[in-house]
Write a structure and sequence with these properties.
563 residues; alpha/beta; Urease, subunit C, domain 1; Diaminopimelate Epimerase, Chain A, domain 1; TIM Barrel; 3 domains; 8-stranded parallel beta sheet; 19 helices; 19% strand; globular
Length: 563
């Protein structure tokens, strides 16, 4: 008998005795073992271990260094973590990643720019690299509150930064500044040249400033007028954006579709998936197309060959939303006809066992939506279907109670990081101190998952969101959230891992580091559990794994990615 054969019965007995993994895995040999670390498991006990073993893309065991090393074989790769912290891969429960990825290779990002001058320098740099006449686009993910100057760019500044290029800079879904060349290229000279509802901003003397104002529908239509990246650029952008998320410890996303997303928007994603080159797991839903389409017919047509759960471990279709019908989209006062139309689509989805998620920002009117949910629930139990309310930053206890009773999940994001100061000015400081009521939701047992809503309206950095969850400070440094609504570090991490996994219908297989689950994890460059809260936004991964496969490696682990 060789040494390997003699060793495994003993290892199996040891592992079984320690309860490290299930019996069918007991004789497995690890493909990789990470030792000498701080493994934050996010299991039911919030256990922290020293080492973790991986085999066939799944977690084989977690435990002490000696316990886990007993699972090493001749071909096992052993990695010394040097005391570094390992967390389950982060899962963003609401990020418009498919849309963002399409243009990531061609856009300029102002995310994390500390000054307007730094932001303009990024435009200058892009202009130096761009082909003559190419568009320079900043699609969002910034606010003037992050700049030392505390102001937005002027048209003259954009023109000076890229004099030979049309420049488009969008702020949320409320405002955009266009250079003279951009206005000329889009043939915009007066309000009538804009999507209905949008207007040219004018100064005190009535002269156009170069800016355009409007709301989400208008800016969705305006952005659609910009030249689309080529198919090749969209494929490159998808790979680059997903790798950027890997750098930030993200191993999974739940994409809610949204404004401007069409069936063609998924081409690049499907291309990368077919090439088996996805570096994170994608769960996606289908939103209603532009206003004017018959939503029920659209969903019925698009999903004929897309049963709920269609896909594989890397790409999976879940259902419909976040825009279900335009009549109930950002509408606090829907008519009876609009509510009936929504009910017909919701009932259709429930009858087919389909997930449904809805963009709903205001508690004052969410009862209109929950009334329809309860009506459908009387015919088809919706709790097993994982229906979701998105946003709802000012959720009341009464609304959360109704959601909990229905088994409806609450996907919240860090919108208040950018918008908290404006919200406090409009709704009052007391309201802002509980927006969103995270600790209340946790105490009530509401199903919750964290996310960003990136990238038009927020940064895609999950560590910015995690820091905001813990200190409640806006991008301008104003502390808003009360201590009573502040989760602990482990609670916040759980909301971004196991909590968000529920929204992908996958909490049984990922979101925590437990034997039998998928080996989705990240090795951090600092210790999330002990570092100053103020520094958490600077965290990044040094080693990210999806299903045991290394998708990102840097610093001391950089060589592992090529092996």
């Amino acid at each position: 008998m060789n040494c390997r054969g003699a060793r495994w019965p003993l290892a199996g007995l040891l592992a079984t005795a320690l309860g490290l993994f299930a019996a069918p895995q007991a004789l497995a040999e690890a493909d990789m073992i990470l030792t000498n670390g701080k493994i934050v498991t996010v299991d039911a006990q919030d256990a922290v271990r020293q080492a973790i073993a991986i085999a066939d893309g799944k977690i084989l065991a977690v435990g002490s260094n000696d316990e886990v090393r007993a699972l090493a074989g001749a071909q096992s790769r052993i990695v010394d973590l040097g005391g570094r912290t390992v967390i389950p891969g982060l899962i963003d429960s609401h990020i418009h990643a498919i849309r963002a990825a399409q243009s990531f290779a061609t856009e300029v990002s102002w995310i994390d720019a500390g000054s307007l001058d730094e932001a303009l320098e990024r435009i200058r740099g892009a202009a130096r690299q761009a082909k003559p006449g190419a568009w320079i686009v900043v699609a969002g993910g910034w606010t003037e509150e992050q700049f030392a100057e505390r102001r937005r760019p002027t048209q003259a500044e954009l023109a000076a930064a890229a004099p030979d290029h049309p420049v488009y800079v969008q702020l949320f879904y409320r405002w955009a500044m266009l250079s003279p060349l951009a206005l000329q290229a889009l043939k915009i000279a007066q309000d009538s040249d804009l999507p209905a509802g949008a207007k040219l901003e004018r100064d005190a003397n009535g002269n156009p400033t170069g800016a355009i104002t409007g709301s989400i529908r208008e800016f969705g239509a305006l952005f659609a007028k910009l030249p689309a990246p080529t198919d090749a650029e969209q494929i490159t952008g998808t790979r680059k954006f997903f790798r950027e998320l890997n750098r930030l410890a993200v191993t999974g996303i739940v994409d809610p579709g949204g404004v401007g997303v069409t069936p063609e928007s998924y081409r690049a994603l499907f291309h990368v998936w077919r090439a088996r080159d996805l570096s994170l797991r994608v769960a996606y839903s289908l939103s209603a197309l532009a206003p004017g389409h018959d939503e029920l017919k659209t969903f019925a047509d698009l999903t004929q060959l897309l049963p709920p759960g269609f896909g594989d471990d890397m790409l999976r279709f879940t259902g419909i939303g976040e825009i279900v019908t335009w009549g109930l989209y950002n509408n606090d006062h829907p008519t009876e006809a609009q509510k009936e139309q929504f009910y017909e689509v919701a009932r259709w989805a429930a009858e087919r066992g389909m997930l449904l998620r809805v963009h709903w920002p205001h508690d004052s009117s969410v009862g209109e939506l929950l009334d329809i949910f309860e009506r459908v629930d009387r015919e088809f139990r919706i709790a097993p279907l994982r229906w979701i309310v998105d946003h709802l930053d000012d959720a009341s206890v009464a609304s959360l109670t109704r959601m909990k009773n229905l088994g409806v999940g609450w996907a919240f994001q860090d919108a208040m990081y950018f918008s908290g100061d404006r919200y406090a000015a409009a709704a009052g400081l007391e309201a802002a101190r509980r927006a969103p009521p995270l600790a209340t939701g946790l105490r009530m047992g509401v199903i919750m998952g964290a996310g960003t809503d990136a990238h038009r309206v927020m940064s895609y950095n999950p560590f910015v969101a995690l820091r905001w969850m813990l200190d409640g400070k806006t991008v301008g440094g104003t502390p808003l959230r009360s201590a009573e609504e502040t989760p602990s570090r482990l609670q916040a991490l759980r909301l971004y891992t196991l909590g968000s996994a529920w929204f992908a219908k996958d909490e049984a297989r990922r979101g925590s580091l437990e034997p039998g689950k998928l080996a989705d994890l990240a090795v951090l460059d600092q210790d999330y559990l002990t570092m100053p809260v103020a520094e958490i936004a600077r965290l990044q991964s040094l080693l990210t794994m999806v299903g045991g496969r290394i998708v990102y490696a840097a610093g001391p682990f950089a060589d592992l990615e090529s092996k």
